[in-house]
Design a protein that fits this description.
heterodimer; A: about 300 residues; 14 helices; 2 strands; about 75% helix; B: about 375 residues; Rossmann fold; OB fold (Dihydrolipoamide Acetyltransferase, E2P); 2 domains; five-stranded antiparallel β-sheet; nucleotide-binding (chain B); P-loop_NTPase (chain B); Spermidine/putrescine import ATP-binding protein PotA (chain B); translocase (chain B)
Amino acid sequence: MRRFALIALPYAWLLALFLVPFIIVLKISLSDIDLAIPPYTPTLDFSEGWAGIKAFFRGLDFENFVFLTTDDLYWKAYISSLKIALIATALTLLVGYPIAYGMANAPDHWRPTLMMLVILPFWTSFLIRVYSWMGILSTEGYLNQFLLGLGLISEPLTILNTPTAVYIGIVYTYLPFMILPIYSALERMDGSLLEAAEDLGCSRLKAFWLITVPLSKTGIIAGCFLVFIPTIGEFVIPSLLGGSQTLMIGKVLWEEFFNNRDWPVAGAVAVVLLLILIIPIVLFQRNEQKQRELEG
Amino acid sequence: MSQTVFEPWNDPTAKPLIQFKNVTKRFGDFTAIDNQTFDIYEKEFFALLGPSGCGKTTMMRMLAGFEAPTEGMILLAGQDIAPIPPNKRAVNMMFQSYALFPHLSVWENIAFGLKRDNKSKDEIAARVAEMLKLTRLEKFAKRKPHQISGGQRQRVALARSLAKAPKLLLLDEPLGALDAKLRQDTQFELMDIQETTGTTFVIVTHDQEEAMTVASRVAVMDDGRIVQADTPARIYEMPNSVYVADFIGEVTIIRGTARRGDGAYEITFAEGQPTLFAESDTEFDNGQECHLAIRPEKVSITAQKPDDRRNALEGKILDIAYLGNLSTYHVELSSGQIVKAQTANTTRLSRRSFTWEDRVWLSWTDTAGILLKG
């Protein structure tokens, strides 16, 4: 009984905050647009009794999903989101791994401070941080002023409202999600393993490839998923830094929802996005489980 | 019939495999190794024994190449090894934590060093099979380190470090993580493997029994210095200092002053206590301070004063340590000095002849004790 109660709590949480909202969105995606409040039809009307419920289900169809395939905007946005998320994840890994490695090899008394510095940006609003990048990257921004001042460039660089700005924004925002799991994997590693590898004939670099990288693999995978999954649906960064050029599904969704007020199509976009994300989420869960097995 | 005894350290023509020449190692202000010069010979099983912090691990890490001497030179087969990095040395090490690669199987762990030498696949497979057989691990080749027991992991670590057939194998507290029974079995296994492979072993340990069991020579270390390096028997029976006598096994140390008598030194150590006699090769001046070290098993314990021995002291039993096969009596003399005596419990469940508070006589021969300067 006690055990049941313990399991029931997280499941109730999942039901209330994930499954129920998902069903609502799924239902909207199967509805038709309507000039009403809420802006879709049909709505469930219990006053009609059994006939009302039957009429409700008859009103649901897959029209919106079919519509998504007819306009290239949608699949282009999905592909573009996947591409941006993949590249951004790779870039975050390239930047994050050396930071995590440096942290794990720093003297013990330094580590809490370094950890603090990684987490510190989270204490300020995400929006403010992205806005401040606009200030840095714009044509009259600090970066251009700095480079012009040094005489490295004669014309200001156009970074804002390009994909580059989006990558900078994503790498900056999601870096801690990459650093922390890699750091925790590297920190657990026994230093004598590297000495053993060296003793058996490895150079330092070879020992890094053969021992350190494989042993931090679960951290790398976890970090990549933690960056990749939220990046696919990212909306704020491409809208603020990417301008009109950057096509991302999160932005399309937002526009569908708020500009066109087409809730059913927005719902369909969201459901497809979720289906796409299920694959990496399942892979991520598997990685976590494998990690636990190795440690257990 | 003459038997060839393995004693290269007594043979002036023997060439040492390793030579420490005035080696000093400092970490900041701390001197870990203090100006040490000694040799280790081929096929030796050399033990570095001492309490933690005595410098024995530093000594080993310098041999492996993880630390460089601050001063002096270490020669391996006549060649200075200071400029050779650890991955190029013909020296392998078995780590205290075993340092097995957790993501690799037992087979891959053992093959790891061989693959670095760019050996052919067949050569590697043959060598790994040989090592698995030597350490009786054939059945576990495919397992990961976390799927085997502590004793098996220890053997994998040994197999991995022996796979490259090093000139010198370093063992850092190799049996520390095993329980007492397994440790004893493994000690004999180690000796067998050392003999079979003919590799020179240097073992670091703080367990004197382990050092005495496995080693051909034991170097007792204290405070960055080797106090005495000799065979286990000589270390035990002929310690060169009170430190070594006290560190190895049980001992009673009686401090007194020596006077030359006929054939043996006469030692007076406390008022009201009889004079003791001890033969010694070490020269003492009349009235010089001396320490008489006596092993408990060389002291007899009797109810009456024995007539045949000159060294006889009367005291009261303070404590009895029953160890199963042996009993150690702690006897207090009237001067307060405590002397230990050991008897073998040769009969089963016999009535003990002595018990607490009994007055007894302790006696030993002139050659039983060893006279030390300090």
